[in-house]
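B., you asked whether I could sanity-check this one before it goes into the benchmark set. Here's the sequence:
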Amino acid sequence: MSKTAVVWSCGHSDPDTSNERFSWLSRFLYELKPDYAVDLGDGADMRSLNSFDTRKPEAIVSQSYERDINHYNDSQERIRWEFAKNRKRKPTFYGFEGNHENRIKTAISHDPRLEGDRFGISFGHLNTHKWFDEYHEYEHGAPKIHDYDGVDYAHFVGAGNFGRPLSGVHHAYGLLQTRFKSCIVGHTHKRDVYFKDGVSGKAAIGLVAGCFKGAAEGWAGQANSTWWKGCVVLHNVEDGYFEPQFIDLSTLRRLYGD
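And here's what the prediction gave me:
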């Protein structure tokens, strides 16, 4: 029996940017009522734990671990709000740890004295057990890959023995060449899709899901204009195949913005 799913990646909830886009997503999910929803990770930006601004006081003066955590949890609550408000059954939520959530574990590994559920930093502060029916943390130092209905999902798929994120101008095609089955990833903030239709119904799709960011990034320069923002509806998901529908953020704003 085929299913309907909604996928997004790289929401990058950041205290300096409004979370209103997650409310638009909630209204969209409530109307569509998919069987499940997949968050491919980097939902929390965790700017306060980045390793790039250590020599830039002007960049870190407004950063706060507490604000980062609170803003992320607010974004997750917003995504589920329409179902809670109307007391309707939510779709099943699947989540994946991205490299930005992994910043918490990296910081602890560099200085274990920072760890603490009450007065320190902790991966548990993300409340993944509350927000997701299944959540896939990193495995062997890399994003976990998990199959749902014959489709592999991950924050990114690594290439080569060192596991650097697969990317490039033929990203979606590269996913099929690496996994030999349908595969959906995020991470690059770009959108790409490649269809491999075969005989006797045998087919596969490689898909890169763009991002769900709410603002441009000062560090990204010209790359900002190449990022696609939105979510992807997977229609008729069955045995590793589906029909993708891309819903951009401007459409969600037009239909569901206040």
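One thing to flag: Residues 65-85 form the longest helix (21 residues). Otherwise nothing jumped out at me.
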